[in-house]
Amino acid sequence: MSNAITSEEIDHARTLAAEADRVIVKAGTNSLTDAESNLDDDKLDKLVDDIADLLARDKEVILVSSGAVGAGVGRVGYTGETVEESQALSTVGQSQLMRRYTESFERYDRKVAQILLTQHDLENPERFTNFRNTIETLLEWDIVPIINENDAVTTREIRIGDNDMLSSTVAVEIDVDLLVTLTDVGGVYTGNPKEDDAAELIEAVGRNYDTVQSIIDESSTGSFGGIQTKVQGARSVSEHGVPAVIAKSTEPDVLEKIAGAKPVGTIFLPINGVIDD
Ligand code: GLU
Asked: How far is the CA of 151 from the centre of ligand 1 (A)?
């Protein structure tokens, strides 16, 4: 049996993604900071504009935002050489991030809330229940929860590691209908698009996952923008029957396009939504 995905299957997944009532949007540091590691107002406002498109459609949106350490580096003017210094930088950057998010969402009369999590919070049932209850209450109040890892208190042993894993774990545990991972790469390619002009976008990932996985293993380098964890996160969500999209943060109206079932980035077909041959 061919592992090619049919256009009917892709359309079906795009429709499910478009109809999602509850969406997690994950934005990486590169989608929020400039070349000098300063928080980039235009990038942040664009992300908020995109989220506002989903809110205008009465969807619930939870934002998982990186950028604390990155914004801290720009703000303090120091890269940080030790784990302790990166942790300290995250505290500077996190408060700056939240100030900017607060201002930016105010353009739409929207309030935001900050939630910082550690691995303990994801693993401990009581803490996780508290987290879930808080999210539900905020969403009922039409407030946008903004989640990041609590970098200041995590050590190597208890780090979630990256926000790709954080967003996929939260997506599965709080019953979202769609995960959108926004990145500067813009999807899964047949090579490293930053180095290889011939690299082509893979439109959909489903039963071709093993092939996609081996392409990624071969083409990934340190500079590939962490596509592996994004693919793992999206795959894990899709295995729970929820569609996931990896898309370019700079693409105009990127979330509006997804909500309109248009082709954007790479879509991961929900496993129980795959139409078998
Ligand atoms: N929590 C880190 C930060 O805000 C980001 C982790 C990640 O990029 O995945 O800087």
From this structure: 8
